[in-house]
Design goal:
By secondary structure, this protein is α/β, with parallel strands linked by helices. Helices cover about 45% and strands about 15% of the residues. α1 packs across α11 (about 215-230). Bound molecules: D-glutamic acid.
Length: about 280
Amino acid sequence: MPSSQPIGVFDSGYGGLTILQQIVTRLPQYDFIYLGDNARAPYGNRSFETVYQYTLEAVKWFFKMESPLVILACNTASAKALRTIQQNDLQKIDKEKRVLGVIRPTTEIIGNFTKTGKVGILATSGTVQSESYPIEIKKFFPDIHVFQQACPMWVPLIENNEHNTAGADYFIKKYIDELLSKSKDIDTVLLACTHYPLIKNKIQQYLPSTSTIVSQGEIVAESLAEYLQRHPEIEKKCSKNGKRSFFTTDSTIDFDQHASIFYNAKVESKHVHLEQM
Ligand code: DGL
């Protein structure tokens, strides 16, 4: 058995670091390897086919790095690629490996936060168009009404570190107003994009003060802890040296400068070139 079998955590860019931060807090003993496909981010407006292809390339890379388990810490990739990878590709590549997403753990509990039964979903255009959230929430909470709002400008603003500017405020307010115009009774708003925790305070500013804002980091971390408990055959493969490694498909200098905003700690990344399919 290889000495290092880190749990893989993937995002199109930096957003997945907000999830990784919570995961390493909850499960510090495990080794983790993070990959941001920054050279090709954002994924939010890309087609199903493209997001699937990019995500599969990343998953294959994690498997080469000996990850027994990969978390797609990206809603867009979870919405557009996860099911096909789980149902078709894993059979062909390696039946022993596992790939999990962030949508299922969130939809399992989101209904517990609302009193009015009206939940708002803020996400990328890709996640919204996939209808993954309304479909999945219906399975667990059939009586809840889901209102979706695509926020296509938010990830580019955050990836470019422009989210604390007046220009960003304009777009934050714009999408919140559009969401609230769909129902005035929305009392729970899910940040269904792993980049959005960075603008949580600003989102809060434009929502009614009684709103509950739910971000995914802690939810996904808890769900992973439970998954590892339920699946000892996967858990025993995950190496436990408390090691974290970071990789990016773009400039490591940019990544290291920017990543700490998302991860709240210093990061030293290595460059990787993903093999095109
Ligand atoms: N962080 C990814 C998500 O959760 C987003 C983004 C993108 O690349 O557009 O959807």
